């Protein structure tokens, strides 16, 4: 029988009898005969746990990844993940709960969201955070909609050095709402005020800055860009890697209006692209324009502190087509993972992770420049990810590294033909000197 | 002397010369329950009759407020930003916006107080 | 533990640590030596510092204030809160899957791609569609994508006038919100009293400006839309497309298929029908399936099976593009894949049959104490129109809150909007007769209490970790983050 179906044939008989029916088939009488599927679904018969384990192990073994040393980044990073995270999210009171619509029996989920919002605002230096969004790319799109809604303008400006997938997602979202996307060419990999000045106008709703940008470079004209954006009455959206905020200036420090990003770095695994979550924080005055759930503190009948979903009139179930977004659920469990991660690390730990990642990345970078024929794609300050290039196609470089069990990075040709042989290399705190020395050794040996 | 009018969407309009003060009716505030937020337009914004110019929110509902007549906003009741509950206390004195009327002829299409009373009784 | 009332920030002690990373084994140069001083923050962000014991106890205590499916019955209508099998969780945590990066070369992730391709085919078979995309991250995300596909299809045919989407007034609030995200205008049509489409109303609303119709079947009242073939014919003849909101798929697996009913686009909620956990509000997964003529518009990339193996292809000039960063919530749809394998063709059909049996058993057992919205056999869920007022008066909200004291999660309340005092009940197939009987008894007891001791019901809940919360206060003066006392 099926372990997830409790009722037995005897139960079935008793139940039918109790309500005056003869067979389950009677409940389906109203489906027109010609619409009935008069055959079995073309699927395999049920498998037991043991059979599934074998099948999944076989399937998993067709992947390579778990025993490889990972230098791939592009917004998704291989980091140390504290054991406590899996133990917290494995509590089924968290993972088998629905959205906290009944606050009296959902104080766990609601307080988790409230704490998450606090952690995210402290990290980003913003006033308010929502309970999370789908992912980093759709968070950028939602932020663009907020800017459009707030300014009543229709144009979003982005530099060409953002994550190519973010750009793809933004294009799709904006196109269907008949909004305009203006792409600003960057200079030597970074976004300049001068470049923005050529495009910004009274029609601009929002300007996006990604820091560090897709090439790993630390943007150096953010203050000027924020000032210029605000002078044009547009909103400044800053997309950030949350780990870097352990040491880098926050969106709040720069005076950004909305901070967004992908939360994968915060204790979430690689998971072949998902589930991760997007985070979004903003200034106080934008709170009612935010998409998604927000938890708020209040008191119960007896005056005891408690939490509820609040400002719900922004949301789809009340505002329908006028809602700030159609998002219902968020990525609650991934946001919980991020909360546990931030708490496990604490103030000191997050600074250490960020610092070590940057220091190790610079060790590898310097070793490569010193010992091999590879050159930097951009010779500019970067954080923990950098582009290198040579006469050898990046695919070949990756192949050589893979032979030594190393995933070498991302081929930069995905950003355009200018980057023909470019390879984007990410280094996290998890990488060791030995692994990096081996990376350099492989590059040295390439001819 | 001011004249008082109502709409079928439960706004009231008090006309004094070229200006009109607009709010929502007592019946409307009662239907909404505890008002938690009121969004008002900017001063100098122009509206046509029937445009929505703001939102009144309770915990589980949000209602647009509509312009009973065309006009340009000359003043908003800023007090409502921090104390939206004032509308629950007294909907008829706690106004929302003052406008400069563009077309006085539109007033003829509004309801009188008595007509409005009959209208809500039928609802 | 019921008394536990600390926020993690209140436990912080700057000298405690819950986790440490290994010491740096390369030279520790100062950040200022390679980054501009202006790019660095003055102080690290304020994150709490606690011991590992404090951390575990904090979250364990919070979890004790939560109600999950593993705690008890969860009959939320339209949410399909069925048991989340544990093998799914174990399989989703296999390092051979979790430790693959989305930017790895196709050759290194053949297992992942094969799983995606297999799941695509399984879901197509279950729904009767031709091709699926797994990219949407939630049901609402799938809905948005489905409507984008609809719009892209019409635009590609040069039919740019089609900007309206018809939804019945019994539909979920996400339908119009998703339409707005796709740049479509919603036209709501009135349903008949039993929630079925009024064919006359529909035909009046159809025209050359209509992109399509969004529908669930069975509908929100748990009834099968018998005229679905006429509806499909009318919509198609008017040049529109038919969109299936898969919220109610749990009633029909192996019995009938949206593709055979005439639907062109389908979205599924894997976190409903296919047992992936709700997670307290995500992560979900909302694959979208389409008929052949809409395949060119699906998002990129998609999995292709070549002789050399599986490949992610971006070659699709008419594609709407991307709607999420990578390939959707891989770790979630992997769980759905495992579920389908566990059930097989026979198990999925049995699941739908028992889900429908359980719903009818509840509905007919409650019919004397509550008003039925429609007195006709239901599918996997049904709607009660509040308490039987011949016995007692009690608003639905109070009945729901009183159920908490009986240890049951309440049904969905005040939805669909077309039924007054609605209680929408969906038991799912995973609940036993004993559990259903316990719920029936609780529902009957509450009717008795409403008659004999209405105050008890009106002031409920009495036994939960917190009592009725002040939502008005929370909305008037939003406190949405913790701040240290000044």
Protein described:
The complex is a heterotrimer of chains A (447), B (123) and C (486). Chain A folds into 3 domains: 9-58, no CATH class; 69-79 and 346-445, Aspartate Aminotransferase, domain 1; 83-341, Type I PLP-dependent aspartate aminotransferase-like (Major domain) (Aspartate Aminotransferase, domain 2), CATH 3.40.640.10. Helices cover 38% and strands 14% of the residues of chain A. Chain A is built from 14 helices and 15 strands. In chain A, helix 3 (83-89) runs antiparallel to helix 12, helix 6 (136-151) crosses helix 7 (164-176) and helix 12 crosses helix 14. The longest helix of chain A has 40 residues, at 332-371. The radius of gyration of chain A is 25 Å and the shape is globular. The mean pLDDT of chain A is 96. By secondary structure, chain B is an alpha+beta fold. Chain B has one domain: OB fold (Dihydrolipoamide Acetyltransferase, E2P) (Beta Barrel), CATH 2.40.50. A 6-stranded antiparallel sheet of chain B has the order 1-2-3-9-8-5. The longest helix of chain B is centred in the C-terminal third of the chain and has 10 residues, at 113-122. Chain C has helices at 52-63, 86-92, 95-98, 110-127, 139-156, 174-181, 199-205, 228-237, 258-261, 330-366, 396-405, 433-452, 454-458, 471-476, and strands at 131-133, 164-168, 185-189, 210-215, 241-245, 265-267, 288-290, 302-306, 309-313, 370-372, 382-387, 412-413, 422-425. In chain C, the strands form 3 sheets. Chain C has a 7-stranded mixed sheet, sandwiched between helices. In chain C, helix 5 packs across helix 6 (174-181) and helix 10 crosses helix 12. The longest helix of chain C has 37 residues, at 330-366. The mean pLDDT of chain C is 96. The chains are: A alpha/beta (447), B alpha+beta (123), C alpha/beta (486). Chains in contact: A-B, A-C, B-C. Chains A and C meet through helix 1, helix 2, helix 3, helix 4 and helix 5 of A and helix 1, helix 2, helix 3, helix 4 and helix 5 of C.
